[in-house]
Amino acid sequence: MAKPTTDQGVTTAAGSARTHAPLIELRNVTKVYGGRVLSRNATVALDDVSLTVAGDTPQIISVVGESGSGKTTLASLLMGFISPTSGTILYQGSDVASLGGARMREFRRDVQAVFQDPFSVFNPFYRVDHVLTVPIAKFRLAKSRADRHDLMVSALETVGLRADETLGRYPHQLSGGQRQRVTVARALMMRPKLIVADEPVSMVDASLRATILESLRTVNQTLKVPILYITHDLGTAYHVSDHILVMYRGTIVEAGDVESVISAPKHPYTQLLIDSIPWPDPQRPWGQERTGRGEKVTVPEDHHGCRFADRCPAVMARCVENAPPPYLTGPDHAATCFLHAEQPALPKERLSELLTVSAPKS
């Protein structure tokens, strides 16, 4: 049983209640840009998504999908950068929209981000130390200059950087991979309960990707910090993740254990993503959609069914009429597709139950 949280050494009833609540919860969250949900000019970036991150299980969950699938919007909502159009986002049982003062600082400390662009994080007029010293001062992480230096050195060493080769330099004097690892070190200093890594290797050379991903994996395994890894790259998602969420046009279409989802995808969209991975054989065709056992169905633009219906090789009439619920296709695998309607239906709120492991992937 977890110990109640304390405030200045005094256990509070509210703190005790927060101890038993998940770290982050999205409850039926929708995010619309450019107008209301039914407006012609509206873009529904996230549509009725529910997700729970317990925060006490050291796992890596990948969120994958093509551009426009809602991955970054999901990350921004989790970090409190934007507000939902509808639905609720909870931090330890409290609505993020109502947080203020000490509770908001606690939230900002517990949920840390590693961004896509390792260049824009740094001010070129400041040494890289600035990225590390500002949060130390803001969150009062050190009592003296010596403590501050030791904290920075420890964080840098955790991600494979030497302090004497990093501190005191300007951003242009470091490689893209080094800059990205400094941002990981910055997040680590906060002792977060969750790291949200949004495309952290998409803007660095291929030779550096393994190094950065290994740094994240080391953080996950040694410090027991869960990581939400946002990516469009199924290859890296497979190698670093314990579990995976596949998104398409703002909805979760498949979720489960990464081995199960990648080796035996159940949703036609996930199958399309996997088939689009180029093979090291020029004679082997790739990037072609599978032929399915679908029906001859006219898919109107304004239908209210499955969002993948207009691209799906297995589309059926019911796919256009109604949106499918998630179906449990295995012990820890679900797909939002009528092809599996003979399997038990799973409420969206329970999808997160598939994203729990007893130990990190080795």
TrEMBL record:
Keywords: ATP-binding, Nucleotide-binding, Transport. PROSITE patterns: ABC_TRANSPORTER_1 (PS00211), ABC_TRANSPORTER_2 (PS50893). This is Peptide/nickel transport system ATP-binding protein. It comes from Actinopolymorpha singaporensis. InterPro entries: AAA+_ATPase, ABC_transporter-like_ATP-bd, ABC_transporter-like_CS, Oligopep_ABC_C, P-loop_NTPase. The keyword ATP-binding applies. It comes from the Bacteria. The keyword Flavoprotein does not apply. Transmembrane segments: none annotated. It holds the Pfam family ABC_tran. One of its GO terms (molecular function) is ATP hydrolysis activity. NCBIfam families: oligo_HPY (TIGR01727). Residues 24-274 form the ABC transporter domain. One of its GO terms (biological process) is peptide transport.
